[in-house]
Amino acid sequence: MVTRSFVLRSASRLFASSILVAASVAQTFDYAFDAAASSITIDTNVALDLTGSLKGVFDAVSNPGGTRTVLGVFGDNGLNNEVPVTITLGVDALIGGAVVGTFELDYEPVLGAATVSGLFATIGAGGSSSADLTVTLTYDTFRSLNPNSVYIGGFPLTLPLGAAAVTDVVLTQIGPGAGTAVPGAAAGSIDLDAAVTAELSFNVDLSALGGTGITPVGPLPIVLPLTGAFDLADCGTVFSATSSSVQSQSLPNPFPFDLVDQALPLPTILPPGGTADLLLNASLDALRLDGTVTASLVASAGSSGRTVPVCDGNVNSSGLGGALGVAGSTSVTAQDLALVATNLPSNSLGYMLMSRTEALVPGFGGSQGTLCLGGTLYRFSASVQQSGPMGEVTFAPDFGALPSGQTFAAADSWSFQYWFRDANPGPTSNTTGAVRVLFCR
Question: Measured between alpha carbons, how far is 214 from 106 in angstroms, rounded to an integer?
């Protein structure tokens, strides 16, 4: 017969001490987007302001019949001159599609807060969007030869360049995504309101326009506000959110971007009707971004975040700190949860404790352990365990016969800790670390 003196003798001191509150431990959920249910649409106009030069395609050896450019209205110095030019390259893009990616959500129930971090997503995976390209030129007066035309400078000239494919659209979080997380109307639902600072990058394929092929655009900073909820009662902690925002900003020298020998077929002005074949070379000075971002996102965390270590066990006579882990499912329907205590003294007696809250009580009741449970403690004292020669215990609570008539329900959070006898070196008791379990349907 196992006596209970080692666990009952200091009950009054134990409960008096348990009012000390432990530091809050966040629930961390690792989410993956559901590509079939998630989409982002970005309707944006990116204006790239560049400075550079125009020059004809003439080459005395390889292309003697090509267009030549000459500065001014009159004269011909026999050279193919570079014409100073300022350029605005417009990328009017409608980017959208399914979302594939991941992020992490840290939930602090005590603080009513949540933080989104590490968001990385590809948009329109496996497909491509398109962009309409325009170029606006402001240049000094010059002439073209072959064909012959005069271009009077000093005012902007806007030309359509056609459509280009947009590929490899990536959204990467670069800053904090802190927000509020408070209980919603439905049981277990947590309403989330957060904002994620991210960068948008994509590639524009200019090869169809006679250009230099794949040209990267970005990273472009954007803010993605998220309004939605995550369901603690669901075993996948399903997350759903929407986002709608207007983006408008100007960035000086945002990233390296150069146009090198970009083909630019320029219609003749005086007289009209011909085409001067020019090359455009330019470097980026600034970027202007205007547009809207809308999103509908669904993600699942699977089983992640449903069990959380609360504290570590102190060293016992095995030379190690007792550890407590979780096996099986956290589903109240499955009812196959198992609590596994390891690193125990061999052939030691003990039993499981549980509580809805957490605390930090070192040396409670004269033991060598630290009690990490707070508030009202519920004891599985009718289920005393023996650690055997391996110093391990596996305990499966009977969901229909919990201490004091307690029940496990979806979205309930319970913390567990194992209390056991020890001799270190004299008779004493100790505890494993504690673990929090978030139950689901």
Answer: 38
